[in-house]
């Protein structure tokens, strides 16, 4: 078998990894954190139903409430990251995540589950907020968007690997396998905490020198409006994992096995193309344009997916595949514009709390999205896909005016990313 020349391998490795320094170290923490989350997300719900004997709807409700708690408490954790430095907060959140994971195998009462899940949700949400604050503090300009794109590609790799390992535990379906699953989560969280020590310490901003007082981010209406519009693109996740599989089975003639291949196609495209897709958002003007591309792609996705219900197996399969390509393009462009706008409109010394406030825009897509997407596509069929497309049309129409409003109301010049030469 022919071997890859060392020089070519080095160039290939350099093209995959971000530049040496904080971005590369953050890629490691993202890989470890996402692997642990993939284990947890893919295996915890089934464990509590199968092994702990809890009702499915109660487990689902508890996990949803835990995720909501993570979004709400993220504001306070972001404020702490601004005051005391994001690296220390990220380490604390990584360690805190390990605590409920370690006790999950011994949880049997529902109130114990709710408490442990809430602690994990708050810690995981806080970890994400602190991690983004580290990006804002350790990386400047358009390199932030590029680093975020790398981290998201790595995140997809980690969460996929975690889900695969969780699948092995679920297949075994023994207490030993579930213990291995949770202890794997604990190990990943603690290793993530240790890996942060290799990053430079980022000092916090004392209260007297802070650019904003108190929790001003939650009162910054233009910023919150930008967050709401930008996060509409996150409905693509719900469509991919909930809407399309249910629609494929109940509303089209496509083979059921195609559902898994559609998710795999999305994962491969994101891992391979997210960095390239995010380049178009490396300037403020580019971020606005990229957001428009995202919503246009998601509108096309809705139309193609809905039309698949009118064709036989192979044409329907082709339409669904193309719709997932459009969905993935919208997802990647949407993420690029979200990162650019989230960093650009936040004051330099308050990236933590502003980043957490930006995440509040996820409440609609994450909490209401599954119910809305499922109801629309299952009851109204193609008409439901048209309504969903209308949601993206409304976001497309509102995006530029809302961003202009935020631009006019910034008290200080924005920390705008400047275009940089792309690495070849």
From TrEMBL:
The keyword ATP-binding does not apply. Its main location: membrane. It is found in: Cell membrane. InterPro entries: MFS, MFS_trans_sf, MFS_Transporters. Keywords: Cell membrane, Membrane, Transmembrane, Transmembrane helix, Transport. The keyword Cytoplasm does not apply. It holds the Pfam family MFS_1. The chain crosses the membrane at residues 21-40, 60-81, 113-137, 149-170, 176-197, 223-248, 254-273, 293-313, 382-403. It is a multi-pass membrane protein. PANTHER family: MULTIDRUG RESISTANCE PROTEIN MDTH, RESISTANCE PROTEIN MDTM, PUTATIVE-RELATED-RELATED. This is MFS transporter.
């Amino acid at each position: 078998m022919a071997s890859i020349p060392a020089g070519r391998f080095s160039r290939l490795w350099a093209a995959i990894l971000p530049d040496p320094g904080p971005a590369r170290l953050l890629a490691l923490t993202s890989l470890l954190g996402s692997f642990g989350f993939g284990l947890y997300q893919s295996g915890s719900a089934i464990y509590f139903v199968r092994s702990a004997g809890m009702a499915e709807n109660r487990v689902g409700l508890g996990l949803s409430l835990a995720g909501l708690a993570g979004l709400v408490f993220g504001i306070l954790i972001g404020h702490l990251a601004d005051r005391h430095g994001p690296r220390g907060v990220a380490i604390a959140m990584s360690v805190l995540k390990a605590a409920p994971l370690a006790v999950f195998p011994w949880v049997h009462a529902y109130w114990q589950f709710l408490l442990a899940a809430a602690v994990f949700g708050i810690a995981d949400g806080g970890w994400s907020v602190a991690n983004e604050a580290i990006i804002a503090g350790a990386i400047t300009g358009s390199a932030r968007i590029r680093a975020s794109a790398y981290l998201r590609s790595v995140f997809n790799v980690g969460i996929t690997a975690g889900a695969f390992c969780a699948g092995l535990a679920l297949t075994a379906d023994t207490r030993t396998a579930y213990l291995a699953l949770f202890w794997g989560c604990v190990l990943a969280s603690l290793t993530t905490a240790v890996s942060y020590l290799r990053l430079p310490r980022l000092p916090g901003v004392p209260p007297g020198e802070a650019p904003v007082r108190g929790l001003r981010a939650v009162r910054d209406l233009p910023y919150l409006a930008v967050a709401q519009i930008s996060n509409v693109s996150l409905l693509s996740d719900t469509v991919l994992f909930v809407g399309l599989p249910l629609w494929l089975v109940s509303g089209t003639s496509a083979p059921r096995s195609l559902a898994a291949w559609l998710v795999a196609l999305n994962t491969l495209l994101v891992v391979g193309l997210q960095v390239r897709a995010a380049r178009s958002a490396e300037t403020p003007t580019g971020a606005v344009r990229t957001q428009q591309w995202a919503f246009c792609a998601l509108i096309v996705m809705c139309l193609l997916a809905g039309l698949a219900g009118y064709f036989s197996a192979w044409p329907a399969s082709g339409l669904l595949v193309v719709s997932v390509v459009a969905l993935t393009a919208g997802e990647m462009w949407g993420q690029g514009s979200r990162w650019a706008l989230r960093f650009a409109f936040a004051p330099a010394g308050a990236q933590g709390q502003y980043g957490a406030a930006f995440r509040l825009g996820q409440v609609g897509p994450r909490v209401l999205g599954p119910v809305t997407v499922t109801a629309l596509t299952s009851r109204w069929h193609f008409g439901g896909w048209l309504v969903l497309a209308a949601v993206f049309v409304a976001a497309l129409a509102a995006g530029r005016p809302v961003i202009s409003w935020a631009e006019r109301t910034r008290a200080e010049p924005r920390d705008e990313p400047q275009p940089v030469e792309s690495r070849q």
